TrEMBL record:
InterPro entries tied to this protein: ATPase_YchF/OLA1, Beta-grasp_dom_sf, G_OBG, GTP-bd, P-loop_NTPase, TGS, TGS-like, TGS-like_dom_sf
Entry-linked PANTHER family: OBG GTPASE FAMILY (PTHR23305), OBG-TYPE G DOMAIN-CONTAINING PROTEIN (PTHR23305:SF18)
PROSITE patterns linked to this entry: G_OBG, TGS
Protein name per the record: Ribosome-binding ATPase YchF
Domain TGS intervals: 278-361
Keywords assigned: ATP-binding, Magnesium, Metal-binding, Nucleotide-binding
SUPFAM superfamilies, sorted: P-loop containing nucleoside triphosphate hydrolases, TGS-like
Superkingdom of source: Bacteria
Cofactor(s) needed: Mg(2+)
Family, per entry: Belongs to the TRAFAC class OBG-HflX-like GTPase superfamily. OBG GTPase family. YchF/OLA1 subfamily.
Length: 363
């Protein structure tokens, strides 16, 4: 699962990515991994791993991870191939969700590509380019499908949905802001449209605004905009996050106290990104290893077992499940079993976030 970091030039996108990669580099259990110059994998902060490690005392701990892609900066005309437009669009097609970094601070030393600070304009520049790219896809599909619609019910249904999307795009609405039935959603997902991808906005503010704790006018504007499309806005100072990520644990904690922060803002971004992708975590825990496994929400037990090994799914018998909350109450897996808090679940069990599981299988 990948999240693409996008934004106009000079909004703090690269600074944020640098902070994310530095944070990953300091993770002892899952070191930052550079797959390409602009791709990084970082661990998902999860306090539950600390508790499981405490009670199991394992040889190693493996957290859940998420991949961030630093996508080339975008300018007007990207949908027509202007600047790095073609590269931008090809990269963004490959990610599962978008993290849009928006400049919400004044600084005369950092020139804004559009000449002034206006978060809504900046967001709409990127959204418009994606809409224009999607419009090309829809129009091509309509030309092809309309010819079949007279004698084909499936084609007629597709034309109806395509016209609905086209109308929304014409009005400047991203596909994610449109309403669809379950049947329509299934078809829309096949189109792989850029504006159908879930989006999270990051308002990049100054150090002074972070210290004051008060939202500036730009953050307020961005939140009002995001609310209309049911997207979230997270507020951080990318400059401070980059500094925090480069410090030792002790130095970082001291600086966090100075700023009055409970944790780095990056932790919040990573967790929200994980949630944005519709992901949950289950755990396997023992003296050899405590492991956080990533699955899509709604995954059933056999498929979750298959994340560990394909044989687990093929020969699935049952899952022995203890919820994380019950495990905390009991204090150990053995105590949870004695207290009757362990459940035996079959093939139709839908995994829940925080399940601590032992899979039984026979191949």
């Amino acid at each position: 699962m990948e999240i693409g970091i996008v934004g106009l030039p000079n909004v703090g996108k690269s600074t944020l990515f640098n902070a994310i990669t530095k944070a990953g580099a300091e993770c002892a259990n899952y070191p930052f991994c550079t797959i390409e110059p602009n791709v990084g994998i970082v661990s998902v902060p999860d306090e539950r791993l600390d508790f499981l490690s405490k009670i199991e005392k394992p040889q190693k701990v493996i957290p859940a991870t998420i991949k961030f892609v630093d996508i080339a900066g975008l300018t007007k005309g990207a949908s027509k191939g202007e600047g790095l437009g073609n590269k931008f669009l090809s990269h963004i097609r490959e990610v599962d969700a978008i993290l849009n970094v928006v400049r919400c601070f004044e600084d005369s030393n950092i020139v804004h590509v559009e000449g002034s600070i206006d978060p809504i304009r900046d967001v709409e520049i990127i959204t418009l380019e994606l809409i224009l790219a999607d419009m090309e896809v829809i129009e091509r599909r309509l030309q092809k499908t309309s010819k079949l619609a007279r004698n084909d019910k499936k084609a007629a249904f597709e034309v109806e949905v395509l016209e609905k999307i086209k109308k929304g795009l014409d009005e400047g609405k991203p596909v994610r802001a449109l309403q669809f039935t379950e049947e329509e959603k299934s078809f829309v997902s096949q189109l792989m449209l850029l504006t159908s991808k879930p989006v999270m906005y990051v308002a990049n503010i100054s150090e002074e605004d972070l210290i004051s704790g008060e939202e500036n006018q730009y953050v307020k504007q961005l939140k009002e905009y995001a609310e209309k499309e049911n997207s979230q806005v997270l507020v951080i100072s990318a400059k401070i996050e980059e500094e925090l990520a480069s410090l030792s644990d002790e130095e970082r904690n001291e600086l966090l106290r100075e700023y009055g922060l409970a944790e780095p803002g990056l932790n919040n971004i990573i967790r929200h990104g994980y949630s944005l992708l519709g992901l949950i975590t289950f755990f396997t825990a023992g003296p050899k290893e405590v492991h956080a496994w990533t699955i899509k929400k709604g995954t059933k037990a056999p498929q979750a077992a298959g994340k560990i090994h394909s044989d687990f799914e093929k020969g699935f018998i049952r899952a022995e499940v203890i919820s994380y909350e019950d495990l905390v109450k009991a204090g150990s897996q053995a105590a949870a079993r004695e207290m009757g808090l362990m459940r035996l679940e079959g093939k139709d069990y839908v995994m829940q976030d925080g399940d601590v599981v032992v899979f039984r299988f026979n191949v």
